Give the backbone structure.
Amino acid sequence: MGVAPDSEFRYCAGLVHALSEAAEDGHCYLPQVELIESVIKLLTTEDHQPTEDAISVTIKDMALRDELIREKIPDQTLLCYKPTYFHTEQNLAQLISGRLSQPITIDIPRVRGWIERFTASHKIQLSEQQQQAVEMAAYSRVMILESDGEIYCFGCIDNMFWFFKIENFIELFDLYF
């Protein structure tokens, strides 16, 4: 290809690729140590193995050019993000915070009636925990559900049941809090 195995261009491309691969696995960032390991594995050939120091210097240079964002968390771990993922995470956090700060009023007997009609019409039997979770969703601004390792975030109960219909769920999956 004409790109030297030890070129900064190749190291930058390797870093971006490793972060993109992590994103495909659902990660918005990687700890710098893991990112360096991943890039070394990715770019190692028979003739060349990048050093941790060389990749670390490239990470610092990319951060100075705003091509990569590094964030130090309380335990002093450095997290590395592609800028789009970092800003998306920041905006999502602000959105959720804003939603949670807005008061909501709900008629619980009406919600319970709706749940009864919905479950009866779909022939669904909710456990006590599921019933509580659906009620909580009705008076929460934001709800996060986990199923089979996937995370789903909903802005209201209507969106949650729309999701169930789209996914053709016959039964509600377990809800964890």
Q: What stands out?
A: The chain has two domains: 8-87, 108-166.
